[in-house]
Amino acid sequence: FAYSTFKKEAELDMNEELDKKYAGLLEKKWTSVIRLQKKVMELESKLNEAKEEITLGGPIAQKRDPKEWIPRPPEKYALSGHRSPVTRVIFHPVFSVMVSASEDATIKVWDYETGDFERTLKGHTDSVQDISFDHTGKLLASCSADMTIKLWDFQGFECIRTMHGHDHNVSSVAIMPNGDHIVSASRDKTIKMWEVATGYCVKTFTGHREWVRMVRPNQDGTLIASCSNDQTVRVWVVASKECKAELREHEHVVECISWAPESAHPTILEATGSESKKSGKPGPFLLSGSRDKTIKMWDVSIGMCLMTLVGHDNWVRGMLVHPGGKFILSCADDKTLRIWDYKNKRCMKTLSAHEHFVTSLDFHKNAPYVVTGSVDQTVKVWECR
């Protein structure tokens, strides 16, 4: 009884109502504090990065050898226009333009020096998966989930040929170095070679047990490499169609491959003391990136994995050797662009590149630019210094 009188006197009932009213407010406040704290930390790290760039990127930049130039934040341009994820970005070999492919079924052309949008190539009826220039830059090949490969005249921007023959999504395409054939890879588990002049399929390479994700010819066009959902990388001799090597150490789907240019051979041999040194000409060397979050480097002549780079926190979607030969650049579903000093097997720089998965990257052969594409529908141009 005393308690209830006390309660009445002290207006405790009202407090219970207040409790209800403010229930959970503290927790909400806490979570927003944590969220803001995270944001503050992100911004602080970006600020530090920018400060570092100003102090280190200034006078030293002149002394830095162009062979060692790497992309520096922030990006020079963020280009928007695609209405779906960007699947592939590539530089034109001659002009100051680059091209992006997207799941919105279009291909867009941009000027990377000014950041201007140039034009859209329309023709595919489903996601455009991959694009490739010939060495002159006069022809562009594209492939799509609509099961076709298209050849475009890049001077008049017209589709001059459409090739049918795959039975499923065509995930990758590349024009051979000599310019008279195209190779393509598909979810139908095959790789096909097409004659540019006629559009006829002249060879089919079979052996992968699952979806073939990517196909890339080596520098002289005698070999092609492919990677697949079957977790392997294969290297094929073009002339005989035989599989020269099956590289199997990845533990998940292999998303991407890239041949190391000859400029990288000295560093690779130094880094790995690779066996092929003894047998005269080194290499060739191939990179592969996988959903197991690793990048591997292979000596194709002996079918051996020379090194594994670990650091990405999600699927690796693209990688290439820096034209100077000393670094590897990679992009992944952890939204970053990373630069690896592979001689010491370490990641030397990580750039927060996009708001979403980074699907593709390209490094210009002779201008100091890198381009990236993302599921966030943007294309970003990064200046190197």
From TrEMBL:
Entry protein name: Lissencephaly-1 homolog
Location, primary (coarse class): cytoplasm
SMART domains: WD40 (SM00320)
GO CC aspect terms: centrosome; cytoplasm; microtubule; microtubule associated complex
Assembly notes: Can self-associate. Interacts with dynein, dynactin, NDE1 and NDEL1.
Function: Regulatory subunit (beta subunit) of the cytosolic type I platelet-activating factor (PAF) acetylhydrolase (PAF-AH (I)), an enzyme that catalyzes the hydrolyze of the acetyl group at the sn-2 position of PAF and its analogs and participates in PAF inactivation. Regulates the PAF-AH (I) activity in a catalytic dimer composition-dependent manner. Positively regulates the activity of the minus-end directed microtubule motor protein dynein. May enhance dynein-mediated microtubule sliding by targeting dynein to the microtubule plus end.
Superkingdom classification of source: Eukaryota
Keyword Transport: yes
InterPro entries the record matches: Dynein_regulator_LIS1, LIS1_N, WD40/YVTN_repeat-like_dom_sf, WD40_PAC1, WD40_repeat_CS, WD40_repeat_dom_sf, WD40_rpt, WD_LIS1/nudF_dynein_reg
Protein family per UniProt: Belongs to the WD repeat LIS1/nudF family.
One GO molecular-function entry: dynein complex binding
A GO BP annotation: microtubule sliding
Swiss-Prot/TrEMBL WD repeat ranges: 79-120, 121-162, 163-204, 205-246, 283-308, 309-350, 351-385
UniProt-annotated location(s): Cytoplasm, Cytoskeleton; Cytoplasm, Cytoskeleton, Microtubule organizing center, Centrosome
Sorted UniProt keywords: Cell cycle, Cell division, Coiled coil, Cytoplasm, Cytoskeleton, Developmental protein, Differentiation, Microtubule, Mitosis, Neurogenesis, Repeat, Transport, WD repeat
Name of the gene: PAFAH1B1
Pfam families: WD40
Keyword Amino-acid biosynthesis carried by entry: no
